[in-house]
Amino acid sequence: MNTSELFERVDDRAPGFAQAMAEHVADNGRVLPHVLMGDLGRYVESYFTANASVASKIPAESELRGVLALLGEGRQA
């Protein structure tokens, strides 16, 4: 899976991350995968810290599970 596919799937599995993705594209004019992956990491982390550090709400457990499963799928590809 390439980075475009990854972030399309993130959008499907974690709709709460959409605001952070939209701000990223607005700021950069396109997806910069190495930067957006850091935002995704902080989004996942916020579930555990209860401190939203990106422009998104703290993910629901289902979103967290979806993102982690997606990352696991990408690792196996």
Supply the key terms.
mainly alpha; 4 helices; 77 residues; 71% helix; globular
DSSP strand tally: 0
**N- to C-terminal distance:** 7 Å
- Strand percent estimate: under 5%
**Which residue ranges are poorly predicted, with pLDDT under 50 across at least 5 consecutive positions?**
none
How many H/I helical runs?
4
Order of helices and strands: HHHH
Helix content: over 70%
The tally of domains stands at 1
Structural class: mainly alpha
What sort of overall outline do the alpha carbons produce when their principal axes are compared? globular
- Average pLDDT confidence is 90
Backbone CA Rg: 12 Å
- Main sheet overview: none
Description of the molecule:
It is built from four helices and no strands. The chain starts with a helix and ends with a helix. It has one domain (3-76). By secondary structure, the protein is mostly helical. The mean pLDDT is 90. 22% of the residues are buried. 71% of the residues lie in helices and 0% in strands. α1 (3-13) packs antiparallel against α4. It has helices at residues 3-13, 18-28, 33-49, 61-76. The chain is globular.
